[in-house]
Structure formats: structure tokens, C-alpha cells
Amino acid sequence: MIHGKARNVIITGTGHAVPTRVLSNFDLEKMVDTSDEWIRTRTGILRRRVADEHTATSDLAAEAGRLALKDAGVSPEELDLIIVATITPDMLFPSTSCLVQKNLEAWGAACYDLSAGCSGLIYGLDMAVHSIASGAYQRALVIGADCISKVLNFQDRSTCVLFGDGAGACLLEAADQAGVLASRLGADGRGWDKLLLRGGGSRHPASPATLAAGWHYIEMCGNDVFKFAVRIMVEASLQVLADAGLQPEDIDLFIPHQANIRIIESAAQRLNLTEDQVYVNLDEYGNTSAASIGIALDEAVRSGRIKGGDRVLLVGFGAGLTWGAMIIEWVEKA
Ligand code: UT7
Predict the structure, then answer these.
(1) Are 285 and 251 in contact (CB under 8 A)?
(2) Among 42-51, 80-89, 176-185, 272-281, whose mean pLDDT is lowest?
(3) pLDDT at position 1
(4) Domain total for the chain?
(5) Bridge partners (DSSP) listed for residue 96
(6) How much is the pTM?
(7) Catalytic residue among 118, 147, 160, 170
(8) Do 157 and 196 belong to one domain?
(9) CB of 161 closer than 6 A to ligand 1?
(10) Which of 34, 83, 215, 265 is most buried, by the most CB atoms less than 10 A from its CB?
């Protein structure tokens, strides 16, 4: 049972959704001054999925959420909380979670979005765990979803090759069994300008000038984020392992945020994890931001890579700067 938690909470369903359109490294070679070789060796990414002009974040989020509900055997009316973690909401307001609620017809659910960049799913899971553990809520749907392609400058090779679109969802419920063993969140707002979308908010409202400056696109200090990521993935993992009284060798599957294979390998090495303890799918999807850990978790469960009793360590980092880590003892569905 985690600190301050009165009831145990387990994940009873998972789901994910990605757009059908595939954008390969070779496609990008035709659009910007890059190469498959550079992208592959510097990031580990081979291809990513990109939403079409009719698809927005709430569409992918609702689809992932619907699959998680189906997986859990829970109907939308039984939900009392929907949290969508995203940095690419359909619009500034209303929240994307309200649009998901409408799509799912989950009329009994309170809804809010949270912005924690690529740490978003873990932030959402942590909020849901505490909301359910307190007894205030019974069933929460947490969705990490982003359409980063919509805010990418496809003339900027330093960002456009990294990201893809998608959504990953988890259904959480109270339970007698172990479930979530430990969870830690953190942030350092001093790094606010390392990864950002400057325009369109109340600081720089959208205008012809913000458009001309390209402030509707993602900006990133890649090297700084890289160094931060390598350090924080290890620190956050060790913290949460200590909270749960576990060692790295007790972990059956490590699911890190899928940003760059070099970041993942470096963290895994420092944690003394073997290759078969680490889940990687960024070759297929690129960095799907708040969706990445949710997509990986769903794939790992559905492919049998996670079984009942397994201990799973999730760890993410992202814009803010933010980070989060969580250890789950997986409970097989009855
Ligand atoms: O979810 C959180 C989101 N962000 C991240 O996780 C990003 C973390 N950072 C990274 O993954 C890496 O820093 C990058 C993949 C973004 C960049 O890799 P790097 O090894 O740090 O490369 P670099 O930025 O130091 O650039 C090395 C060279 C530069 O050329 P010069 O100055 O050495 O001539 C870049 O201009 O590579 C060049 N470059 C590229 N070349 C071909 C940068 N992007 C590209 C590209 N294709 N797409």
C-alpha cells in the first residue's frame, strides 16, 4: 500500500490507439535535411504514426479509453472520473477530457486535463490512485494522448523527426490486492524553457506576429533535455524502488518513456537492468509524448510480456520540466 493510501488500487483495463498513417524516416528524408541513418542511430526511431487533418487528440484518446473500458468489462456509465494528460488539447478549452466524456457518453464522470508533458500519464495515474484510494472515486479512466505532429515544424529537423501521435489509456479501480505499490512525481519549473510551445496562451496570444515567429511550434533544447532525462530517469526509479522496498532486479518489466533509445539504454545500464527487463517500442511510434508509456503498457499486457504478479516500473520525464515513476504489482483479471 503506498504512502497515505487507504485502499489499494489496480489497473483493470488498458487500451491504446494510434493513427493509421505511417511516416517513415525515408519519408522525412524527402521533407527535411535528414537521413534514416541519422535518425536511427541517434534516436532508435524508424517510423511514427501521424494523424490526418480530421483527427484530433480527443479522437485518439476516446478510442484508447473505449478499449480500456472494454478490456476491464466496465461500461462508460460506471466511470466517475476521466483524466486526460495532454499538451496538445483539441483546443485551449473546454478540456479534452470533456470531449472524451461526450464521445464515450460517460455522463457520470468528472473530467479534467493535466499538462505534464511526457510525464503526463504517470501524473494522471498518480492523481487517480490517490482519488480512488481516498474513497472519493470508484473508477477512473486515465488517458495520455497527444497529436504532437499538429505542433511540429516539418522544416525543423531537430524536432520533427522525433515525435509521433497516439493515445494510451488505463482503467483504475479499488481492490483488495496489491496493485500500485509506490508512486513519485516531481517537477523543476526552472527548466520551463527547455521544451515549450510559446504562443497561443495568455503570455503571447496568437497573432500574426506569433505566427510569423513560429511560436505555434514546439521548441526544444535537445541536449539539455537529454542530460536531464538520463539523470532523472535513474533518480526517480531509485526513489520509487526504495519507497517500495525493492531492488532493480526485483523488476520484471521496466517501461520508460519512449523518447530516445540512447536515453533508455543509459538509464537501464545505470540501473543494472538486463535487455529483457526493458520494454522498447519507439522504433515503431517515435516519441508519442503523454501517450508513450500507456501505449507500451497496453502492448506489453496484450502480448503476454506482463503477467499476474509481475512488478512493473514506469518512469517518465517531460516538459515542465516534470518527471514521475510508479511501481505496479500486476493483478491478472479474474
Ligand atoms: O519527451 C521529451 C522530449 N525530448 C527528448 O527526449 C529529447 C532529448 N534529446 C535527444 O533525444 C537528442 O538530444 C536529440 C535526438 C534531439 C539530438 O541528438 P544529439 O545527439 O544530442 O544531437 P545534437 O543536437 O548534438 O546534434 C548533432 C548534429 C548537429 O550538427 P552539427 O552542429 O554537429 O553539425 C545537428 O545539426 O546533428 C545535427 N542534427 C541532425 N542531422 C540530421 C540534428 N537533428 C538532425 C537530423 N538529421 N534530424
Answers:
(1) no
(2) 176-185
(3) 45
(4) 2
(5) none
(6) 0.96
(7) 118
(8) no
(9) yes
(10) 83
Answer yes or no: do 188 and 158 share one domain: no
Beta strand pairing call for 322-329 and 311-318: antiparallel
Structural domain span for residue 79: 8-178
112 close to 121: Cβ distance less than 8 angstroms: no
Q: Residue 319's pLDDT is what? A: 98
- The count of C-alpha atoms lying within 13 angstroms of the C-alpha of 97, restricted to the half-sphere facing its C-beta, is 24
Please say if the pLDDT value at position 4 is more than 70.
no
CA of 284 to the centre of ligand 1 (A): 19
φ, ψ for residue 146, nearest 5 deg: -150, 145
Query: What is the DSSP-derived secondary structure letter of residue 278?
Result: B
The residue out of 178, 210, 238 marking a domain boundary is 178
The Å distance, Cα 120 to ligand 1 centre, comes to: 23
Q: Which atom of ligand 1 is nearest to 257's Cα?
A: 1
The answer, yes or no, to whether any atom of ligand 1 lies below 6 A from the CB of 259, is: yes
For residue 153, give the H/E element and its range: none
Residue 292 CA: nearest ligand 1 atom is 1
Give the domain CATH number at 244.
3.40.47.10
* Active-site residue (options: 160, 170, 257, 260): 257
Both 169 and 198 in one domain: the answer is no
Rg of the Cα trace of the chain? 19
Grid cell at residue 175: 481492490
